[in-house]
Amino acid sequence: MAAPRERDDVVYFGAGPALLPSAVLEKASRALINYHDTGIGLAEHSHRSAYAASILDDARSDLIKLLGIPRNDYEVLFMQGGGTGQFAATVCNLVGSWVLRKQEGLKAEEDAELMNEPARMQKLRAVVDGGLKIDYVVTGGWSQKAAAEAVRLLGPEKVNIVTDARQHHDGKFGVIPADNTWKLSKDAAMVYYCDNETVDGVEFPGFPSALDPDGEGYEPIVVADMSSNILSRVVPISKFGVIFFGAQKNLGSTGITVVIVRKDLIAQPSTSVMRQLGLPLAPSVLVYETIAKNNSLYNTLSIFDVYIAGLVLRRMLANYPKDKVSGQQAVSDAKAQLIYGALDAHPEIYEVVPDMTVRSRMNICFRVIKDGDTQEAEKQFLSQAEKRGLTGLKGHRSVGGVRASNYNSISVEGAEKLALYIEQFAKALRLARRSLAPRWQPMTRGTRRASTDTIYALSSGPGRAAIAVYRSLCPGKPTPRPRVATMRKLLDKQAGVLDPQALVLFLPGPATVTGEDVLELHVHGGRATVRAVLAALPLTTTTTATTTATTATTTDRVRYAEPGEFTRRAFLSGKMDLAQVEALGHGLEAETELQRRAAVGGSSGSLGRRYEDWRRRLLEARAELEALIDFSEDQHFDESPAELMAGVVTGVEAMVRDMDLYREMGQRGDLLRRGIRVALLGPPNVGKSSLMNVVVGREASIVSDEAGTTRDVVEASLDLRGYLCSFADTAGFRAVGGKVEAEGIRRARIQAGDADVVVVVASIEVGADGPMVLYDAETVALSAGAPARLVVLNKSDAVSVEEASRLAADLSSTTHCPNPLLISCAKAEAGGVTPLVEALAQTFSRLTHVDDLDLLGVTERQRQLLGRICGWGLGAWRGLRGGGGDVEELLGVVFERFCVGK
Questions:
Q1: Strand partners, 223
Q2: What is the pLDDT of residues 687-728, one digit of tens each?
Q3: Could you give the domains of the chain?
Q4: Which of 13, 20, 377, 455 could form a disulfide with 561 if both were Cys (CB 3.0 to 4.6 A apart)?
């Protein structure tokens, strides 16, 4: 029996219903028992009560604010029946609206005296029979069902399938066909599409351009099913006729469906007209006109479900008061990038189902592959995920696989937890494969690897591209003409033609990056082609003749390269020194321009040459001393022993000064690579959290009028003028507070001690006695020990410019901190924090300034070795370059410089 779990132990990635915030459930549970101290639970109140009307109005108003719905043009209806109910509702309502428009058009055209009612109806019937169409864009299971419902209601002759993704993707969903392939009706009653397909993980990147008015009379009435991605991104409402969505994904609990409908589409013709035309009538509970006239209370609506939705909407408005839904969009995008990034890092293990251009941010669908098998690999993946509290990951029953539903209820921390598990599972699979494979024997310097394995890897990045490049090391194999790019048809015995136009390039060793024979395959970069080639390569076999007593033939293994194996071979064959290997790794990890430049500084080989020069000079100095001691009686020196000794000392001292410079510059280069740590210190409510949010460009810290909101260290990283830096918002320093706040202050002190730059934050406060400066003396004292310090005076907009300058001068005089910077987080968009940003950039430049770009390549490991070398000499050179001097080499120098034994 599984151990019991608490709610916080689980991250639920199920496709729906999604989890609700605990705070919402707690408040709803109280309302369920006793709402507004009435002694009656909310679910027991009448749906026609004043309470119900208020709940509806508040939820509607908040939804309008969040999505920016034009109030004068659209109605927001709360209905029932789910998204599936709307498959029928949209058909009946919008076909009725189309008929009404045609009916009114005929009345405007005809002569009422000459046209009686039967004749008018006959003409309308002809218009309907000849022109009524509804269009469907089919990109997944839900749009397929919607189209099927339309066919059931109207018949196939009136339903136009604009495009079916399966016809463009080998009979499977997973793409959105190009707009120019869509076959749209000229005067359709509606054009339906599903914005996000939960089963297949396909999401429209934005509003389809094919559905924009063309300026020549085509103005489609667009219907969008947004049940699974509403409130996750900005929606151009005015482009739509109808948007509908069930509440259970991003809005609330199951039980209600929200319909946003343009007001001019609500009115319906009489039921008798629809009957005479043979067109379907919707049940009254699905007629938009009826629901709108009754304020969504035509029938018994679940007000409790509307109440929960209202709580969720209010919570979103509180979280994103300025950005509204675009604030949530930034979070949703970031979470999806975390998960997809982890999957894309291991293309040999994870296969994302849809095309990269239409990947859903809400429903991330992928397969897990282990030695060509998905069933066992996915079973193992899901089982281990469940044990870690990552639940609901099983794919839809109709397609299988794995599906992570990344709804708004999933926190960034939850997405990070899943991404970490994806990484760890992949590493565990690789380790398992490695343990079953023959042990890899490294090459010695100057020799080739004993194994004749052919190794390969995808050298271009994951995802769809114009070209994908595979690199393979193939020692001793039959090869094509060297250094000539040739076009070839790439074939596989099982799959047939993999790529009809592949480019093949053979580069013979030793003049290659690894010193070995290299074969490159350049194929078309479609994901299916990439997967097919990756699957075919390990199934190939090569033969090598070996001569013993008799001649035999052995079959060599073709395997995927281990991480870093190409670079390791380049190092072991002498093509790269260790400094270049480290620089290459830093280049791959570089996030900012200056990090890239630091990596380039170490990749040219100049560091290795400098280290070799120092090693040579040390050998020469030692050789002179050895010769002076051992051979002075046999050798006539041009200089006296004292002069020789002084020359050696001068040379070594100069070299040590060079090493000290490299050590110092290496520390600066390391600062660029790992990022500059910035700590914000100050008392509560001076605006530290607001300042951090403005600088990093997102709401990383909670901002509140209540003092002491920040109890722990909140960190966020960003690229500031090319410098990677990590900002830390710390707890406000004050004498009073509970144990939690005291712990937060203790951690703030630690953060200050570890920071490269401390920003002391003070503020201007206007009280009954006039303006004053609020600051904390301890934070000023702590900042004095930091490598760099800046002092800012926030809320400068609270007083005049002259008064702010006077208060800044008083602060400088009191704290002995020169030139406090005047800023205003409230006026951030008008450049209120620009002085701080400029000062930070100048400070970062000073901390990391290096005259010679090559010096940026000195890593922390090299810097520490240089320090040890200055203390005890030659031995550690082996760690700097992967080799060093020995006795034989020393004697070689001696005999080279002196004619001993002549």
A1: 192, 242
A2: 888 888 888 776 655 554 555 555 567 888 777 877 788 888
A3: 74-283 (3.40.640.10), 326-436 (3.90.1150.10), 454-545 (3.30.1360.120), 606-671+859-897 (no CATH), 675-848 (3.40.50.300)
A4: 455
